Amino acid sequence: MRKWVVLAAWAVVAALGAMPVGDPAFPKIIQQGFFIPKSSSVSVRSGYEGDFVSDARFQQYNQGVGRVDSYQQDTNSGTVTINFLNRLDIYTVLGSSRVVSDWRFTDLAGIVHRVELETMYDFLWGLGARAILYEWGNVCLGVGGRYEQSDYGPVWMTVDGAAKSANGTLLHWSEWQIDLAISYAIDIFTPYLGVTYTNAKATLGTFTMAIAGDDSGNNSFKNRTPVGVCIGCSLSTSKFFMLNVEGRLIDEEAVTISGDFRF
To answer: Looking at the 3D structure of the chain, how many domains does it have?
Structure first.
């Protein structure tokens, strides 16, 4: 029965398309590292995190109204985590990220336009923390928080299918998130389920052509739904390494793959 539960959790994650949450049991999953003794109250982990957002579900505000048709964001990052007492993780995220987006706006003359844009891969950084609040047997309840931001330089853009210059323009993105999640350890697997509250914004400017309903060369996006759900599963023998897969939905559609080594 337990094997079927684990397989079902992995299948749901694979079917999904906020920022990564991570397993609430992360602070205690890897019990033994390569160099730092198991008895040490402080340990260090390092790893990889790939976060792939297929739809951030943004809407326009300030300069325009209406949904952003698509906002995709791909990020590949390295992570460094300092762990305290196998109960608290404080970590940093340093990586490379890009955005592909398109949206429509109605100008002051009542004409509808469509804008498409893609950025280059640019530097992304973030800080976060997670803590175990309560444990009962194999059950773990945890809370976390995270902040990330990046400034993207557009590679190309089109307005109504016609190529436009994006030189000297900028897309600034930032996001903060808090989450509450619960996990249940089943042998080497630890599936989990959580809820998130996210505030995400993207600011575009200054373009030489209109990209918003007020006919300005600026536009602002924010997430339409702040509350989301995450589901994931970690894999580890409690020694040296762990692998995690996570999917998020409602507020956005995204998949994250990550892995950590404990020193």
So the answer is: 1
